[in-house]
């Protein structure tokens, strides 16, 4: 069960099946979160918060057996799901797209303050924390954009 949830309910295994490699799996996890985020557009903001909190809890639980030695396997994508859902809380339209892009780039390149350090935290906390922190930066940017465009 840990493995199934850690793979984002299977989406983290798609690159391996298509390209015989695990690279890019995180983007598939973010895409799953984007689909969930689209479904939440009409919902109140707190529904997105509940979804993000649930994904964070699932990530901490599911990634634990695979992060015990400090590794973060590419096929573990529930952390990308969690971080992306954090980024999309209460957003729609252009602000939603901005947040989605910033969350993904923030996780991939780890140039935002604290994201690389968060990834070095031990175990499942490190696996999850960098994505959640990148998601928080993206959420802030998304809300700023939403405020500017009305």
Features:
150 residues; mainly alpha; globular
Count of distinct strands: 0
Give the count of helical stretches: 8
Give the strand content.
Answer: under 5%
- Outline the biggest β-sheet: none
Q: What proportion of the residues is helical, as a percent range?
A: 55-70%
Give the ordered list of helices and strands: HHHHHHHH
Shape: globular
Report the structural category: mainly alpha
How many separate domains make up the residues? 1
| Span of the ends, CA to CA | 43 Å
* Mean pLDDT score: 97
Q: Stretches where pLDDT falls below 50 for ≥5 residues?
A: none
Radius of gyration: 14 Å
Task: Characterise the protein shown here.
This protein is mainly α. It has one domain. 69% of the residues lie in helices and 0% in strands. The protein has eight helices and no strands. It has helices spanning 2-6, 14-19, 25-39, 45-63, 78-87, 93-109, 115-119, 123-149. Helix 3 crosses helix 5 (78-87), helix 4 packs antiparallel against helix 8 and helix 5 runs parallel beside helix 8 (123-149).
């Amino acid at each position: 069960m840990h493995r199934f949830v850690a793979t984002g309910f299977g989406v983290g295994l798609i690159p391996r099946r298509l390209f015989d490699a695990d690279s890019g799996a995180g983007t598939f996890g973010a895409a799953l979160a984007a689909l969930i985020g689209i479904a939440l557009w009409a919902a109140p903001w707190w529904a997105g918060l509940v979804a993000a909190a649930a994904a964070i809890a699932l990530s901490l639980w599911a990634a634990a057996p695979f992060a015990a030695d400090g590794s973060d396997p590419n096929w573990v994508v529930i952390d990308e799901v969690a971080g992306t859902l954090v980024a999309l809380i209460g957003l729609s339209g252009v602000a939603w797209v901005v947040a989605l892009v910033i969350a993904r780039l923030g996780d991939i390149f780890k140039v935002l303050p604290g994201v690389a350090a968060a990834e070095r935290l031990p175990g499942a906390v490190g696996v999850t924390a960098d994505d959640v922190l990148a998601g928080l930066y993206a959420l802030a940017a998304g809300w700023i954009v939403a405020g500017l465009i009305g």
